[in-house]
């Protein structure tokens, strides 16, 4: 193989298309010879893998995209895995194309969308739907709570924006596999959620509590006691309930921070606040139970809401 072909294949998980080979100066005769001598291995129509290169999941995903023709992209759960969405695992490769629907082949599932071009990007060198479009496309498969957590991840990592999601929603209409109203509720909740720059755990706690029927807490609520101002992770000011997240990294690693945190809790207690402190070792169900008890809500009803919103729908 000529150097230019090898360099291209290296960037494409060992893959090249016939169109790319011809564009790089390889003749049809040379391509056929490489296929006969098994230097090129056919993986899709017009898509080949250079012999000796490993066949990983991303390579299979890109092969399916390339084999689906111009403007095809990885989408749905495949795009979700590429973006690092929670709750998903690489199984069936899913592709969206503006062309008429293709038959399922080689274990891939195909979708058709005439509104696709504005929602296309590249992830790990693979054409894919944007973070926001992928979230919308999966809105019928994931619960509202799960969608909220995924959006929070995207906001925190700056892979998504609320404005981008709003624009995507405005372009799309309800369709099979989409629950636009569900995504709109998730988006509306983020208008008062903690800022993306705050800790991921804080955003997770906010999404968890609001997704189980409990009142909406106030993020980063400021309390001034004896001239000292504290910003509470989450709070119910009218009930004087503070909710704090103690992570191993930023908290408790030095004597100074340990003493400061203890003084903080003492000041809040003397001012009539009840402080609930959670770590990542506390199960979600226990977090919900404790907050429900303190607020006088029904723990059993909140637990049912947690199960309903946290379950991945069966296929």
List how many beta strands DSSP finds. 12
Class inferred from helices and paired strands: alpha+beta
Annotation field: number of helices? 13
**Amount of helix:** 40-55%
Weakly predicted, low-confidence segments:
248-253, 311-315
Shape: elongated
Euclidean distance between termini CA atoms: 44 Å
Q: Helices and strands, in N-to-C order? A: HEHHEEHEHEEEEHHHHHEEEHEHH
Structure commentary:
The chain has 315 residues and is α+β, with helices and mostly antiparallel strands. The chain has three domains: 1-55, no CATH class; 62-191, no CATH class; 208-310, VSR Endonuclease (Endonuclease, Chain A, 3-Layer(aba) Sandwich). It has 13 helices and twelve strands. The strands form four sheets. Strands 9-10-11-12 form a four-stranded mixed beta sheet, with helices on both faces. The protein has a three-stranded antiparallel beta sheet with strand order 1-3-2. The radius of gyration is 25 Å and the shape is elongated. The chain starts with a helix and ends in a 5-residue tail after the last helix. Mean pLDDT is 85; it is low at 248-253 and 311-315.
